[in-house]
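so im writing up the methods section and need the Multidrug-efflux transporter record in one place, dumping it here so i stop losing it
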Amino acid sequence: MTPAPDSTTPLRAAPSRSRRVLTETRSLWQLAWPILIGQLATIGMSVTDVAMAGHASAQDLAGVSLGVSIWNMTILTLMGLLMAVSPVVAQHVGAGELDAVPHVVRQGLWKALAAGLLAFVLANLAAEVFDHMDLEPAVRDVAKGFVHVASFSLPAFSCYRVLYGYSTSINQTKPMMVIALAALLLNALINWVLVFGNWGFAAMGGLGCAWSTMLCVWFSLGAMLAWMRLAPAYRRTWPFDHYEAPHWPMLRSLFKLGLPIGVTYFAETTAFSLIALLLARFGSAPVAAHAIALNFTSLTFMVPLSLGLALLPRVGQSLGADDPLTARFRAWVGVGLTLVFSVLSAVGIAWWRMPIAQAYTSDPQVAMLAAQLLVFAALFQLSDCTQVVISCAIRAYKVTRPPMVLHLAAFWGICLPLGCVLGLAPQWVPFAPAVPMQAQGFWIALVVGLSVAAGGLLVMLSRVTRKHLAAV
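--- predicted struct ---
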């Protein structure tokens, strides 16, 4: 029996708050940095696509940018829809219920297969919109071809995202980093061969980027399955020890949890991707400039996204262990760390905007337009970085519908309408500018929409954490 402390028994001092913050920051970063490198490698594939298409021709760049707008809307919606696996697995891990994990993963894969096949059909239908737009024929052909070819990878992408969420939630993040780096190298090689016609292949221009994307997604799924088979960390929760038919109660639960996240991702990505479609009427230069600015900000966005993806299992495992106080502490440490990064990111983008633009294109007009848009990108770093991390923290609590409503209001209710007014200047709107602001008008609206989303989510996280503490 441990003796009761008295005046002569030294008591171990509780760690100070600053030490706790530092310890949690280190733990969060240890989980986040492999995700970050993997995410940077993944987005690096898009950077490679856009950069190589840009050096092929302005038409190839514009066509790939338009095709990528459909592709991004599709895969990001799938990512959100399939993210439901992460909080469910994380809470099982926190509660020590490891035997329940394989069932969740198997049902998640059934959900992924259905979602991927549906996305394949919808993406190809969406590509038909290019036939009804005032586009140069060469641009239209590249845009449609990109979607048609890349869409064959959507079932593989869906299954990979389920395994991604499962692996992250059992604290295994390095496999995705290694696989993404390998896929990046493979993507660069295939692009170099197919876009420019090396090694005896015919030069395919922007369409070569689509083939590269499709092949690399299937490679990533195969590599992930191989890693899981060989690594000891997956044996305790190995999901492929036997066949399991669809279990409708679990599938309904995963769809109920994941659908609002998918709608949220769709609302946000359409606020970015539809801009490219709306700018097409002004020619290739504004579309290309928008693609460059969006592509680079997507690169910096990987840091807060990676922190959010690491924060989700950290918070979820605390909730599974019935420790809402630690869950709240971890959530706010993640938000604070993200705020620090967002300030540094904003300063860097504003200072280096012209060299960044020139790294993407040799066209002076496109580079100048892109540099102007990067100023607005710097402005929304604070709100954009914050909202993604807060969203992940809230999802760890299995709260998905209120964030969906907020994102719909911010992006579809404010951002897109305001962007159309400023960017297109319809004369029937009383406060519309006399001359269309084109891409700049849309990016001003993005700043407003992201600020509304970040502010609302901040309030929402505070209420959710207080509610769970009160329930204890």
